[in-house]
């Protein structure tokens, strides 16, 4: 058997990002808060980088009184000063007022249920079993495993043998905790648990009967059939329906969601748009300080090096200083390019969606994709995608994510955007007759009358995007 060696040549074209490009891409993807943290971290790590000094206004050293001090000086003594002058929230409408929020941490759903059980007369062994049951609840409060599976898990993992009847008893104790509906097996069981905790009344009993015995028919919204089977009039059925719809299908989701958490959640926009007539003014919200090279690193760094030092130490020190200076210069330049890129991308969006910024009407959003912005700016599609990801713009009508302005054409021969179609569908459904809601075919015909020639499956796709159920589920009594 003979062996042979063969030498072949092939050409391959590969595109790789340099370390500098990789760093720029990472900075471009950051939002305002993230870039502030990155600048703060770079200032701590690199001694060659510092915040540029803001030029002082001539005469600042001679005058240090605030506007509030000047107003208080109008009174002869403190007794004449009105009480509202001493209030903490004495601010004008243009001032930023930060309200201190004391948030009481309720903990997770499991912690809340365990705390409630600890306040009862449950013994240590049953409490351990109850904790294991609570550990099998999802974030909405539903039990994720069957009782047989929990029984096997307790025997195998915890070494606890417990009869099924006793396990059901402990599960019942967990189901009796707050919020009502927790530890349910499914949606129907969750609604039943909540209804049973309510005070008895005719409507409550009717709602409980519907959920316990006619839940499938109720879910399909077959009200005529339901009224006939229960032998009730439509008014009582309507009241029972309203009661059932008022129940919480996700009881576990309300734990830990306090008013303080809502106040703590906020979005800091990266851009600000002001509208004056037909003129749209764009500004970049920049909380990043101006950076510069520290004065000691501007030269070659000889002042840091002892003349008596060894030659090797001289080289190491000089290399360190040069490296830090180059890193600082590179970071300053990358920040400048990032700000310039963001501003150009947002300027192109404002230009393309000028009508929307003037009217704040979604129907005025024109079809726009990444390629359209690329044609305006000359940037690559990946650059535009990263520049718009996680960024927000503040307008007189509210705060919008930049991805909000991108929407495709409905069809190749249509000038309408998907946002325009979504707004039209939302409007038609909002005005529909609740007794006879519009089907997707009916919506398609009404949209065609408005000049939107789209297929029924496209209507269904946009309706689902709006989280609007099908017609039979929108039917009311």
Largest beta-sheet characterization:
4 strands, mixed
- The assigned structural class equals mainly alpha
Number of domains: 3
> Percent helix among the residues?
40-55%
Mean pLDDT, nearest integer?
A: 81
Query: N-to-C SSE series?
Result: HHEHHHHHHHHHHHEEEHHHHEEHHHH
What key attributes describe this structure?
477 residues; mainly alpha; four-stranded mixed β-sheet; two-stranded antiparallel ribbon; 21 helices; 6 strands; DNA binding; transcription; nucleotidyltransferase activity; DNA-directed RNA polymerase; RNA_pol_sigma_54_DNA-bd
Q: How does this model look, in words?
A:
This protein is mainly alpha-helical and 477 residues long. The protein is 48% helix and 5% strand. The chain folds into three domains: 109-254, no CATH class; 271-405, no CATH class; 418-474, Arc Repressor Mutant, subunit A (Orthogonal Bundle), CATH 1.10.10. It has 21 helices and six strands. The strands form two sheets. The chain has a four-stranded mixed sheet with strand order 3-2-5-6. 19% of the residues are buried.
Describe the SSE topology.
Elements: H1 19-29, H2 32-45, E1 49-51, H3 67-72, H4 109-118, H5 124-134, H6 147-158, H7 164-175, H8 187-196, H9 202-213, H10 215-219, H11 223-230, H12 234-245, H13 259-264, E2 271-276, E3 279-284, E4 291-293, H14 311-352, H15 354-359, H16 370-377, H17 381-388, E5 392-395, E6 398-401, H18 418-430, H19 440-449, H20 456-465, H21 471-474
Parallel strand pairs: 2-5
Antiparallel strand pairs: 1-4, 2-3, 5-6
């Amino acid at each position: 058997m003979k062996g042979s060696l063969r030498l072949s040549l092939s050409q391959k074209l590969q595109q790789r990002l340099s370390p500098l490009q990789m760093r720029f891409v990472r900075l471009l993807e950051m939002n305002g808060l993230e870039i502030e943290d990155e600048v703060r971290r770079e200032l701590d790590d690199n001694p060659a980088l510092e915040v540029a000094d803001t030029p002082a206004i001539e005469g600042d050293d001679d005058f240090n009184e605030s506007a509030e001090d000047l107003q208080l000086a109008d009174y002869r003594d403190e007794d004449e000063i009105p009480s509202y002058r001493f209030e903490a929230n004495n601010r004008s409408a243009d001032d930023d007022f930060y309200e201190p929020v004391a948030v009481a941490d309720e903990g997770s759903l499991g912690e809340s249920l365990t705390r409630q059980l600890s306040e009862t007369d449950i013994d240590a062994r049953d409490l351990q079993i109850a904790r294991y049951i609570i550990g099998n609840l999802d974030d909405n409060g539903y039990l994720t495993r069957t009782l047989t599976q929990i029984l096997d898990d307790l025997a195998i993992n915890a070494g606890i043998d417990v009869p099924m009847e006793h396990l059901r008893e402990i599960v019942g104790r967990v189901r009796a905790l707050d919020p009502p509906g927790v530890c349910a097996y499914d949606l129907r069981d969750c609604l039943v648990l909540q209804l049973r905790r309510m005070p008895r009344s005719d409507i409550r009993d009717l709602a409980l009967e519907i959920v316990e015995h006619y839940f499938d028919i109720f879910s399909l919204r077959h009200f005529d059939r339901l009224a006939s089977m229960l032998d009730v009039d439509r008014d009582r059925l309507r009241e029972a329906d309203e009661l059932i719809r008022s129940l919480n299908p996700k009881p576990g989701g309300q734990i830990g969601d306090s008013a303080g958490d809502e106040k703590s959640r906020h979005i800091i926009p990266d851009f600000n748009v002001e509208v004056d007539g037909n003129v749209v003014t764009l500004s970049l919200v920049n909380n990043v300080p101006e950076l510069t090279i520290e004065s000691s690193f501007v030269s070659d760094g000889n002042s840091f090096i002892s003349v008596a030092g060894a030659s090797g130490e001289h080289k190491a020190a000089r290399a360190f200083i040069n490296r830090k200076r180059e890193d600082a210069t590179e970071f300053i330049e990358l920040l400048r390019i990032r700000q310039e890129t963001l501003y150009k991308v947002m300027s192109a969006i404002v230009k393309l969606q000028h009508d929307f910024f003037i009217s704040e009407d979604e129907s005025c959003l024109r079809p726009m994709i990444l390629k359209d912005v690329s044609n305006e700016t000359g940037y690559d599609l990946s650059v535009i995608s990263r520049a718009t990801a996680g960024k927000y713009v503040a307008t007189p009508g509210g705060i919008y994510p930049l991805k909000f302005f991108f929407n495709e054409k409905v069809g190749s021969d249509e000038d309408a955007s998907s946002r325009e179609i979504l707004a039209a569908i939302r409007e038609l459904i909002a005005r529909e007759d609740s007794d006879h809601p519009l089907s997707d075919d009916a919506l398609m015909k009404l949209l065609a009358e408005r000049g939107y020639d789209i297929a029924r499956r496209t209507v269904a796709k946009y309706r689902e995007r709006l989280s609007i159920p099908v017609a039979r589920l929108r039917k009311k009594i």
